[in-house]
Predict the 3D structure of the following.
Amino acid sequence: MSDPLLEAEGVIAEYPVGEGLLRRGTGVVRAVDGVSLTVRRGETLGIVGESGCGKSTLARTLLRLEEPAAGTIRFDGEPVCGLDGAALKRFRRRAQMTFQDPRSSFDPRRSVGESVAEPLRIHGLTGRSSRRSVVGGVLERVGLDAGAADRYPHELSGGQLQRAALARALVLNPDLLVADEPVSALDVSVQAGVLRLLEDLRTELGLSVVVISHDLGAVREVCDRVAVMYLGELVEVGPTETLFEDPAHPYTRALVSAVPSATEHGRRERVRLTGEVPDPADPPPGCRFHPRCPEVVEPEGYAFAEGVWRSLLDLVVRAEAGRLTPESVAASIARQRVADGNDEPTPLGRRPPGTDGESVDPAGIGPAGIDPADVADDIAAADVDTAVRAAHGLPSPLSDPDAEAVLADALARVADGDAEGARSRLARSFTTPCRERPPRSIAVSEGHVASCHLIPSDGDGDENEGTGPE
Amino acid sequence: MTGDAPSAEGSTPPDGSPAERVPPDIDSPDAESPDAESPDADGLDFREIDWAAHEGGRSVPRRHLAFCGVVAVGAVAWALDAAVGIDRGTRFETGVGPASIAPAPGHVDWLFALTLFVVGWAVVVPLVRNPRAAARYWRGFRRNRAAVAGAGFLLVVLAVGIVGPLLLGRPSIDLSNTYRPPVFMGGTWAHPLGTTRSGEDLLRVVVVGMRVSMQVGLIGTAVVVVVATAVGTVAATAGGLVDEALMRFVDVVLTFPTFFLVLLVVYLYGGDLFTITLILGGTTWAATSRVVRSEALQRVEEGYVTAAEAAGASRAWIVWRHVVPNVSNTVVTAATLVVPSLILYEAALAFLGFGDPDVWSWGRVIAEGRSDLQNAPWIATIPGVFLFATVLAFNFLGDALRDALDPRHEADRR
Amino acid sequence: MTSDRTTSDPLLEVDDLRVAFHTDAGLVRAVDGVSFSVGRGETTCLVGESGSGKSVTAEAITRLTPSPPGEIDGGTVRFDGEDVTRATDSRLRELRGNRIAHVFQDPASALNPVYTVGAQIREAIRAHRDVGKRAARARAIDLLDATGIPEPATRVDDYPHEFSGGMKQRVCIAIALACDPDLLIADEPTSALDATVEAGILDLFAELRAAFGTSLLFITHDLGVASRIADRVVVLYAGRVMESGPASAVFDRPAHPYTRALLACRPGVPGGSRPIPGSLPDPVDPPDGCRFAERCPHAIAACRDGEHPARHRVGDDDHHVSCIHYEGNEGTELGPPPGEGAAWPAWSTRAGGRDE
């Protein structure tokens, strides 16, 4: 328990972006940005996050299937990055991985038995009959009958293939198993069995397991500790139950609340996240979650009603992304006008029966071709003000007079066609500590750390500047 | 999950009932022969393996040694024949009779034998060793009746082409028997397909032509397959500069005017069949290698390649064990289209008079019969019909193989 | 489903539907006598494992079943009173995309990468409506807006690869809504998505139903997802209906052992999940009697004989179960299976508490 099996410190993984795909793509995307974590002997560590957060890249980097751009990884006390030749091969034998889609991770032209035996052949077990007996044994251990060895991948179900994939990883008797999305490609009814198998194997073989998943239910089921990843960084690490019962980071809270639960039928309170995961090629400054964070810290000097600050920040984010332009506002005004002109409550409402092909709106089509460019010239400042506030759910006026002055000024600039002016006005006045500096990782309790400005840091806590927890 | 009844995925009911079991054969296609190691291996558990004892262990399967041995022996025999062999000139002076029954082999014959051996090794042996896969391909293949008929026809052509000249002898000039019509046009059974202007028996001409066409088609295609697979898979897996260099070379080959190369060689050295075949093979692989490369690029991204990499496999292992077998369907399909095009190319060269003057190619006979179309139409049409049928059969075969080998068509069987 | 009701007739009535596939191994009856209905403005969830026949059922409704090898060999599908199984091909084309629209599992493959999303929505509109390009474009923007895509006026000219997975699925939903369909058939629309994105899409379906009154037939293998949006739930197993009823009844008082097993096997349920032992029966030669008997903790000898168990009513609602244990004692609840005792979750008290 004392010395960890795998230690990663400040790991950065980058990949080059194809030319021309991303507009401002000039070189590399940091899929993993300064992650430090440890995997203890005999424990199961979960790494959770949305797709695109870099968790799979992290897993591949930990096993040196990809070269880290920076940082150190130690396996059993030995740095992994310098290994080559026989030493690398020995590391490969001791650290195994299973992959997300069990179907594509088996060669369709080889029987399952051959695929499971492949690592044995690679590592020099030359005897055919000994290989066969080893494979038969390991297949039985993962709950498949020995006959499965002679089947081809397309003859097995997804759950059976995932078990076979586990068999292939275990056949070398490794010390570390990294399971990338072990159940996300499987039916719910099959998931429990695979997770239970993973748990059994860990205790029986004394494995250390890293489970990568976006499914918090699965992670909760098998993991001792969980690390939450967002946009290439770890935002929270803690013991599973603590993290689920008392999440410290707003992102974790949002993830936990999104888990569907059949035992609570009906709609329950869920934390809603606004916006999309930002482009990892151009991550937001400060706390990377702040553009979507429902609990983003309010700036000093303003007093907002509940939820207004988040809405206001959404508007700032929109302006920063260059999407608060006279044209975009004009488009929404145009649609609003047409909607108001018709009697229908909404341009998308169901057409009244019997008016097919007769009304102004021949086929239930809403605004009949109003070009935003036509409208852009003649929109009044008041219209812009109303439309933008309506779109973002902002009251008129804001309760805080200073904030109101800034907002009114910015919207007036939009109406004047000065999108850039509006952007800088908003960005300058409405900022937040979350944006200004990256949060430090702070110990919330024993073994539970999170990186968030909301967490009061008593004294000097754990001062890993901006590198994420642990 | 422990049951062995396969459960269906989505709307696709499963195939492969338990009845389809075969005896356990974990390492089927590439396994070395059973070893003498640990007679009590049955009890070996994956936790008990002493890996230190196996480090660096690597054995070459006896099967591969056998293959290399046979190829080496063939090559040595060929070299000996080339160095101290029989005077090749006598072969073409023999008339009808025992002398022609065992003609001395030429370079092409050696190469042809080698090609047949390699094809047998690469295609027939794996199918025999893996009867389930063979049965699966056959089930897919036999749906296409035309292709089954075509394959039968081609087997006959191949067999007759190999054995026929030995039994019938080579065509010879017989000025007393010129312009004899075939049986169905009122001729006699002495010359079932009639005779040419110089009195050569057309049946013998056609049979020799079978051998020529098969030699050109198969040897040339073997060259294409080997070069295209090597270039395509290496380019795809190595990437970077190697990929760039190989693909630019492919561009050069693709734009190369093969026809003029043939003319030049024929002019300089006299075009024998051996040279023409190698030139044809050596200039037509480029397009196939591009197809192989794009297929291999996709295969390299597959999960099983990453899985092998994570298990510690070397790049050569991955290419040989995973990439090459998984592009083989593409290669085989492409090859079945290369064969008829090479046969046609050779026929066209012979027709234009650039072929090997010592060889009774169908193209050459068609060219000779051209002037007699009015009074002796059979001279040009009979080889023409065989040429047409052979090319058509290869095309049918290619279509059916594409359907039978493409794993994406597995779904058809649901 | 009596025929004397006319105005309150369900929008879609599937009655004794049978779909078979001819395979090398033999005839697979993927859907073997499935009946259910979707009311107007209602959301019905088809729930089941892979191979339960749920997707085949959904395809058969608009006769998208690939044929050969598939064949609809029995039963009727009535859409708005019209028997779709007998409709001509041209009539089917009028229905598809216009009055019945599909949303598929993988949004990435459902969108054509070489056209902008706007062009694809316009194409869907103009396939069934005679409108001008500009009107169609305006409608496309409205649809993107309605499906929760920010800045629809600019995003309409973007290509699919410029959208994230969740946003692509929203685009697919916008395409499905293009002609204002009466019935939306969504086949595992969130299975390829993250939990956070999935939650957003499920909210969107609920909003759209409120705004448009569209009926929804939602197919999923996850009862957790079903519990979020379903009005009615139909549980399928090996091509047969095991249990059906209002969502509240099915989730609060799951009657069939299979439904209970499905609820208990979800990873992350409090107290630890319990896997369902065994696997689906051989689809070519399914067992007699109840097809779940092999895996059922309640199974008795009588379960393995005769036909599929008859439908029995449970409780007061329109809640039905096909299980031999309910024969004769309708309205009562099946206890825990032998040997489980107190460890068995108490459904009626809503086990839980971790997310209160």
The first helix of chain B runs from residue 51 to 54. The interface with chain C takes residues 1-3, 5, 7-11, 13-17, 139, 412-414 of chain B (CB under 8 Å). Confidence is low (pLDDT under 50) at residues 1-41, 87-103, 410-414 of chain B. The two ends of chain B are 22 Å apart (CA to CA).
